[in-house]
Structures are given as C-alpha cells and as structure tokens.
User: Which sequence fits this backbone?
C-alpha cells in the first residue's frame, strides 16, 4: 500500500548526517506456553500470507500501558489473575527483526525489557547480545516511564551495550543528554543520539525506513512522536500514546489509511475504568471512539490493532464483551509475540 504520513521524499542516509483470561477455566498455562501460543497464532494470522520467514518483521514485545500488568499495587481481579497464573502483559514495545541481514531494532525501551528481550527468538540475536550490541538502533517515542526506563538495563549496571544509534525527537534527545542517569549512557557513548526531523523519512538501512510524526501528549519531560516503519513490502504505524485524536493536527483516518498495519493507543475502553483517578489527568481516546473514527478504514484498508492497554481495560480479557466488540468491528488487540511482515 502506498502513501504514508507524507509523500516519501529522498530518504536520508544517517551516514550523511495474558491475556488474564487465556486458559480461563482450563489448566494453568505457563508463561512460556502462553507466549509461544500467542506467537504461533499470530504467525497464522491475517496479513502474513505473503510473508517469508526471511523477510523483515515487527515483533510485538508488549501491549500494556506504562504500568504493565499486573500493575504495582494493583490487586484487582485482572491483575490478580495475571499474577496467579504468571501471565503478565508486558509494557508496549516492539522489535524489528531483519533475519537475513541479522539486524535488530528496539522500539521503545520499557521497564519490562529484561524479560522482553527473551521474546526475540531469531537465532542471531543472542549472539549479538553476547557481544553487547543487541540492537542496530533504538527508536523512542517519549519520556514517560513505560517508553524509556528500560534503557537502564542497557547501561553499565546491566548489559553495558556498545555504541547504539538512538532515534528520537530533538527534545527527547536533549532530555536524555541532560538528565541522570540517562546522560551517563550518552556520555559513555552507549547511546548514540540521532535526533530526527519530524515528518521526514530516514533510510535506517537498506530495507528499513522510518519517519517520526509529532503527537499531542502530556509533555512533562519531552514531546511525543509516533513512528512509522516501512520495509520492502509493507508499513506499520506505532502510536501508543495520544491525548485525543481531536487535539492532533492530522486526520487519523487519513494517516491510518496510509499504512498497512496500525498499532494505536488503546489505553482505556471507558472513562469509568480508573477508580480514584481523574481521567482528565490521564487523557487518552476511548477505544470505542477510535473505532468509530476508523471503522471504514479498518474494514477496507488497514489492519488496526490496539496496544498500550491499561490494566483496567476489559479488552485485555479474551472473550470479554469488549474484546468481542472490537473483533466484530474488524479491529484487534495486539498480543506479545505477534508478528507483522514489513
Ligand atoms: Zn505510555
Ligand atoms: Zn505517555
């Protein structure tokens, strides 16, 4: 599918510049079995009929909102089930894998990175990790806890990575470079900051291009971008956080129509979900509203999935009324282990 966030100009070379309910009522499913089953189901899923194992693909490493699931101090039934069954949902993050070239990218570095890296099962990845250079690049969306705290695992107290390009907005780059402990990663040369111009396509390597789009989202520490990735065959939009579609200076339907797969902010299903918290302090579009806006696009053109689900979102429960509603309208909820050919 052609068309995108903007016309693709000449690419720039960087050188030049649980589902808690899963297994419900049945035998206890181990975390490994659970994640394996999710990945297996995804491999047989739609949109992959022409995908060859050697082609680049996006691998979903996590689908939960920044706090993860179970969330710290959450003893509500959904979090308790995830805890009891050892079926956590990891915080939103992706890997981009290029099996032929042996290249690996990380999209957002979540606090769950320690477990999430184990989901990258391409044979070459562990060899790269042993060499302390697991990723050819790291793409960051913004400076809220779910999206960059995992960088700490890559620093001196953890893996201690070799110099790795880190693509983000200029403001995010400035935040990392001027605030501890992140500036140590920069000063030690582990993170090679590559601030990007908005809406400009960058040729990351010979089979991956990326563009960052500015997104309206609580700017406490940094601004926010969504990333669109394009491989040899397909494109994917990753947009885990937005305050509202109406606050955006873009037409979400038009943007989503321009990609083959869209992973969108699905934080909340309804405003009453978070007891004791004012939903206006944590603004996000409600899933049904997003589906209203994108109903035709999802039916006719683009695979639209929700990601970044808060632990209160009943769509995390497979078989819930909300999950069924999402499926009946032609949308889906992303799952750890799911793959999308690029
Ligand atoms: Zn977030
Ligand atoms: Zn955020």
Assistant:
């Amino acid at each position: 599918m052609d068309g995108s966030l903007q016309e693709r100009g000449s690419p720039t070379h960087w050188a030049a510049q649980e589902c808690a309910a899963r297994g419900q009522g049945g035998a206890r499913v181990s975390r490994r079995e659970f994640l394996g089953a999710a990945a297996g189901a995804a491999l047989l899923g739609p949109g992959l009929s022409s995908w060859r194992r050697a082609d680049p693909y996006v691998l979903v490493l996590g689908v939960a909102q920044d706090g993860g699931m179970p969330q710290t101090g959450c003893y509500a039934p959904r979090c308790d089930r995830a805890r009891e069954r050892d079926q956590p949902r990891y915080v939103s993050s992706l890997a981009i894998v290029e099996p032929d070239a042996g290249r690996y990218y990380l999209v957002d570095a979540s606090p769950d990175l320690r477990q999430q890296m184990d989901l990258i099962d391409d044979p070459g990845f562990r060899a790269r990790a042993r060499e302390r250079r697991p990723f050819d690049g790291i793409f960051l969306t913004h400076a809220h806890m779910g999206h960059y705290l995992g960088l700490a695992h890559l620093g001196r107290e953890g893996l201690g990575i070799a110099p790795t390009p880190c693509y983000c907005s200029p403001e995010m780059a400035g935040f990392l470079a001027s605030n501890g402990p992140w500036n140590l990663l920069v000063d030690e040369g582990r993170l090679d900051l590559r601030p990007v111009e908005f809406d400009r396509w960058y040729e990351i390597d010979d089979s991956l291009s990326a563009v960052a789009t500015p997104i309206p989202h609580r700017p406490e520490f940094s601004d926010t971008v969504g990333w669109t990735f394009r491989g040899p065959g397909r494109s994917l939009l990753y947009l885990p956080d937005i305050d509202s579609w109406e606050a955006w200076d873009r037409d979400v339907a038009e943007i989503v129509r321009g990609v083959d797969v869209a992973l969108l902010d699905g934080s909340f299903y309804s405003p009453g979900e978070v007891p004791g918290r004012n939903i206006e302090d944590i603004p996000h579009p409600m899933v049904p509203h997003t589906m209203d806006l994108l109903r035709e696009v999802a039916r006719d053109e683009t695979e639209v999935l929700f990601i970044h689900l808060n632990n209160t979102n009943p769509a995390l429960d497979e078989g819930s009324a909300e999950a069924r509603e999402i499926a009946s309208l032609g949308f889906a909820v992303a799952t750890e282990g799911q793959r999308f050919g690029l």
About this structure: The chain has one domain: 18-341. Residues 18-341 form a domain with the Metallo-beta-lactamase; Chain A fold (CATH 3.60.15.10). The longest helix spans residues 287-300. Confidence is low (pLDDT under 50) at residues 1-29, 36-47.
